[in-house]
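In response to a reviewer's request, we include the raw inputs and outputs for one of the modeled complexes. The two entities were modeled together in a single run.
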Amino acid sequence: MHVQPSADRDSTQRMMEGKHRITGFFGSFGGRYVAEVLRKPLDELEEAFITIVPSREFQEEYQGKLRTFVGRPTPLYYAENTTRLLGGGRLYIKLEGLAATGAHKINNALGQGLLAKRMGKKRVIAETGAGQHGVAVAAVCAHLGIPCRVYMGEVDMMRQKPNVFWMERYGAEVVGVSSGSRTLKDAVNEALRDWASHPDDTFYILGSALGPSPYPDMVRTFQSVIGKETKEQLAALGLEPAALIACVGGGSNAIGFFSPYVYPGNSPYETDEQGASRPEGEKAPLLIGVEAGGMGSGIGQHAARMTGEGKVGIVQGYKSRFLLDEDGQVLPTHSVSAGLDYPGIGPELAHLGEVGRIEFTTATDKEAMEAMDFFARTEGVLFALESAHGGAAAIRLLPTFPREAVVVVNMSGRGDKDLFITAKELDRERWKEFLLREAASLGGSL
Amino acid sequence: MTADSPKKLMCHLVAGYPTMELSFQAALGMVEGGASYLEVQFPFSDPTADGPRIQEACVQALEGGFTLEKGFQLVGNLAQTFPTVPLFIMSYASLLYRRGIPWFLDQAQEAGAKGLIVPDLPFDQDEGYYQAAWDRGLHPVSVVVPTMDPGRLDQLLSFLRGHGEPYVYVALRTGITGDPTRLSDENLSFLKSLATKGLKLVAGFGISSREQVEALSPYVEAVVVGSYLVGIIREAAFPSKSSEGGKDALVKRAVAAAVSGLIQSR
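The model returned the following structure tokens for the whole complex.
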């Protein structure tokens, strides 16, 4: 089914060309369902986004820092060993995790940080789940000289301790959130509260392509560098992709990676004003989003909003698909990766899934862990557990493609940060011995 | 202003906090203490517009097994017990939207609610909520803030035109419930500017003293008391030292005393 995405979905693209303002909707998803107190700050943010971000001065500064501070472009790596081993199509890996602070998150953190500075904001706040967005914001704020506070659920602080440590090294204040499920969604709630209390001097750097408008448009705009760069790198090799694969939590890496292949103006596949995504007779890449299959399909065991029991709802200021019970209460989720266990999905991805432009699948905790291990051994490339969900889908799907087909998976983050999770899963006894020895050397006892 | 102005309170409770029965007792205490209106919050797992105290109460109510069915039962019981005390349901978009706004409003109407307060369904992105409420004779209560753009406030007022004397909820300070409120000049001038618009104003956020109630009362139909009473209920339901009597009586008595303390003349 190739229903065309509605005309609204490329609103930022048109905005960049000075054609119209963003609508904040993607089909029926998105919007700005917020208490009145947040309305004015969001209006001001939208105004700044559509006037400042497209300006030449902003773009020069942003692009410059993407090179010198973030380390772009990130490599597009040909996974030759995997291709030989698995048969089928040729696998490429976009090594986005080689960006500064270890994940794609910094593309957006830098963009919003620069915007905060130009808006004259004196203080930055952010939420974080896995900690990658928090680390990126903390580094950007250190770089730009803005005080920074990061809200993080206490459960996430426990399982991503190294990232807490690094955020503090960058000078950020990390505030534990003890309410609700004590994970990412609760950190978002707390950041929204903070912003509602300090709307004048504070900029809220939201980390994923979700939340009230203009965040989904803005985050996609800053993350689209992943897809644009991939497209240029493929073109330089004379290649066109048959499929793009990305993991999906909130979905910022996926929408940034996919966007040049969905929308006209950026895509070799556009046909008309409506932005047909896959014109007749042409091959446009399959776009595959991979959700957290967790430990199974039961309530609280996964975070599959598109492939599972996700319902259309309005939560945290936007309409999309969420894991909700019959009364509209947000359900618990699970994933081995803290970055994929959010109960909602960005509204643009939900829309593109609904119209059939993006296909969704899942990978389980176990498959992700195995994929991480596989790519480390086979390619010398270390996937973050989040990104390894995409890697697992690539392993599964690659053999189904013909030999000349090019499949690109986005390694949105690298796996160093997961040491304390992967080591206890994959090398339990020796890891335990090591930790005991370390604790003893610090004078600890058990 | 003087202490002689009529002082009406809209008292807030979280349905199911600390239990369904105790939230009913708390409402009894509110009316006994002199509440003119009741605001019954249906707890939501992610209440972004509430402060930590109310959020904690919501979490506990949900852990205690709150469901929409029980919430509407509580509202129905209260409406029968106090037919002259108008009762508003406060909740979030997710709860209304999940089974359909018309379904939710039918339940609210049958239970005997006078209206609803849903902060994350603003008038210009309301999913049909306002019209569906009006069609059922329910009052959809808009929330306004002093920092609102005047043009947007005018839009809201013209949207509300033709619907009698609408209730409007004034959130008095920038931010969330539970912080101390100073009745600043800005707040008072905002209230005064609304006073001439043919609205029934209820105003709140951070009200915890008789002085605040006295200062506000001349400008509004009712003063909203929320977090303060949640704190009173918590102390009565979970006393630090053992005390005489059952929890039902304790909660009811403590709430009645707190409410009457807010409106008694000196």
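As requested, we also summarize the result in words. Chain B touches chain A at residues 44-49, 51-52, 55-56, 59, 62, 67-68, 92-99, 119-122, 125, 127, 143-145, 147-149, 152, 171, 174-176, 179 (CB under 8 Å). The first strand of chain B starts at residue 9 and ends at 14.
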